[in-house]
Request: fold
Amino acid sequence: PLEAVGVDIGTSSVKVMELQRTRRGYRVNCAAVESLPRNAVVERGISNVEQVSAALRRAAKRARCKRKNAIVAIASSHVVTRTFQLPEDIKDFEIEEQVMVDAAQNVPYSVDEMYLDYQVLESTESGVEDSVTVTACRREIVDDYVSAVESAGLRPVVVDVDAFAIARVFPLVTAAMSESLRGKAVALLDVGEVTTRLNVFVDGVVIYDRDHSFGGRSLTESIQSHCDISFEEAEAVKLSRNLSEGDQDQLLEPFKRTISQEA
Reply:
């Protein structure tokens, strides 16, 4: 199995983590989080490679991870994904040609401007053709992620899509849950600084995936305005969970209601 450090590049911070498989599951070998300057990452894309790389370098140094191979994920909002059925008699060497033809017709950018990859999904039903899932992302987006990781002294060996990564790891979570969840929809809500993602799974398969332009920054800004303090001070108050009961009713409860309405 590939041994690598997981790298997460968010809007407000970068995270690195190294896991080791054990008989009981997985163990965290090392992990660290480093804050990012504001606007280093904008709309889930890197706008300042140097600032992101510097933060990753500090995180990797503080975590003291031994591995240099790294896996990083691109935000699914930057990715185009299509799934289509393959002709029954198609040969293996013809699949890539079919993928390129389909991409040229259905991807909103020139194929020359994109990185593409695909995976054949073999059908388990008799008489049903195999299908192929194609993923495409603009080269400049991927290149910025790769450059940031490399400049931090790490080797990017896999560039994934965050929605795919979540889908693969979620069965590890549900395995520890009740058997009564089999066949039922399970929602995963990820609240970031400026984006909140809702994934809905049934037996580990993603049936709904959507990003909402709303996140923790709005709560920080509410604290900042209410308490008449700087953004940095408001962020510290939020992270310390040091709101009075009255402030929680006035600030936190509306934020929670907004999340439930947005999702």
Summary: The radius of gyration is 21 Å. The mean pLDDT is 87. The longest strand covers residues 25-35.
